[in-house]
Specification:
Helix 6 (about 170-190) runs parallel beside helix 9 (about 250-290). The protein is of the alpha/beta class and about 375 residues long. It has twelve helices and four strands. It has two domains: about 10-95, 2-Layer Sandwich (Transcription Regulator spoIIAA); about 130-370, no CATH class. Helix content is about 70%, strand content about 5%.
């Protein structure tokens, strides 16, 4: 049985009654892309109107080619005539094609005030979301005491290895170098007063109270918070979190609790390693540069060290761990399903975690100073 011909190439010819009108026919679709270009190149000059009501099929390629032809000939697009069923496509492609200038950012006072207000409102929403998420996580952590079967022990140990063991060399190396730098700077200043020996107290107190836990927390805020956000965000993009809910499971139990427990367990250990590495860095500078023998350095440290400095540093570690884990997991759950959203949330988690760690450390330092502890 012979098949009906389906090859209807595009045509463009002047109207016999009015040479200023160009009549189009055939199919102006992607299949006939080459023929569309040839038909438009053969259009004679002097055309003032294009009648496309004879076009059988029209897609975005045909509309774009007609738009470009109109631009080249200086012909307004309202001089085109299309069939009613093609109007929706025409309007959609025309909006995309329109080469409008980029909006100029308003630099006035009111615009700046508006942007500031929007930023404050966004930050307030993020803070409220974080507080609510904290309450949810704490409630489900307490639920583990009554229902320990909900604890994902394998996942927790896996995250403890990623968070703690894999980060140990980096934390130890950077803490050692920072301890050496603090000893160098302290010696430079104290040498003018003949008090170089006080470098021991400077490095010891600085690392036990502040720098040890702060360096470990900042490194994990950059390394771990971003990893948590990326991991959970990819699961959101892949609809795995939705699948977990469909199965009747709780994403917080499966994804958040193991990460929170892993960070709560490992950050204090990393803070202790950072403290010891910083003290070793200061002792290395004292021994090799400041002519303070290691035995004398350790003796001076033992005579002047107070346990309260160590307690102050270690008390802050669980708080920093909880903040970093909550921010990383919350930002991951807030990913909206696109690669751009994943990148924005990952960046936001790092910025928020580091900022919160520094703010909380400053507030803790002020509080302990006021309490004379």
């Amino acid at each position: 049985m012979p098949q009906a011909p389906n090859h209807h190439p595009p045509t463009a010819a002047p109207d016999p009654d009015d040479p200023r009108v160009l009549r189009l026919g055939g199919r102006w679709t992607l299949r006939f892309a080459a023929e569309v270009g040839e038909a438009l190149r053969s259009v004679p000059p002097g055309i003032e109107c294009i009648d496309a009501r004879g076009v059988e099929r029209l897609d975005s390629l045909g509309v774009l080619q007609l738009l470009r032809c109109a631009d080249r000939r200086g012909l307004a697009f309202d001089r085109f005539r299309f069939r009613d069923e093609h109007q929706a496509l025409i309007h959609a492609i025309e909006d995309v094609h329109d080469d409008r200038p980029k909006p100029v950012r308003d630099t006035g006072f009111l615009a700046a005030l508006e942007r500031l207000g929007r930023a404050i409102a966004d930050n307030a929403r993020e803070a409220l979301a974080l507080v609510g998420f904290l309450g949810e996580v704490l409630a489900k952590l307490l639920r583990l005491l009554k229902e320990p079967r909900r604890l994902r022990l394998t996942a927790t140990v896996h995250h403890m290895e990623e968070v703690g063991l894999d980060a140990t060399p980096l934390v130890a190396l950077l803490s050692f170098m920072v301890g050496a730098v603090i000893a160098f700077l302290g010696a430079t200043v104290l040498a003018d007063f003949g008090a170089t020996i006080y470098v021991v107290e400077l490095v010891t107190i600085a690392f036990l109270r502040e720098f040890g836990v702060l360096l470990a927390a900042i490194l994990l805020a950059g390394r771990t918070a971003s990893a948590f956000t990326a991991q959970i965000g990819m699961m959101v993009n892949g609809e795995e979190v939705d699948a977990i809910r469909v199965l009747g499971l709780d994403p917080v139990d499966l994804l958040v609790i193991p990460r929170v427990l892993a960070l709560l367990g490992m950050l204090p250990l990393l803070a202790f390693i950072a403290m010891m590495a910083g003290l070793l860095g200061g002792m290395a500078v004292g021994n090799f540069v400041l002519d303070i023998p290691a035995a004398a350095y350790l003796a001076r440290m033992q005579d002047t060290l107070e346990i309260r400095h160590f307690v102050v540093g270690m008390v802050k570690a669980p708080v920093f761990a909880l903040v970093i884990a909550l921010i990383g997991c919350l930002e991951g759950l807030q990913v909206e399903g696109t690669a751009q959203s994943l990148g924005e949330r990952t960046t936001s988690s790092v910025v928020q975690a580091i900022s919160m760690v520094i703010v909380l450390d400053a507030l803790a330092a002020l509080w302990f100073m006021e309490m004379d502890f």
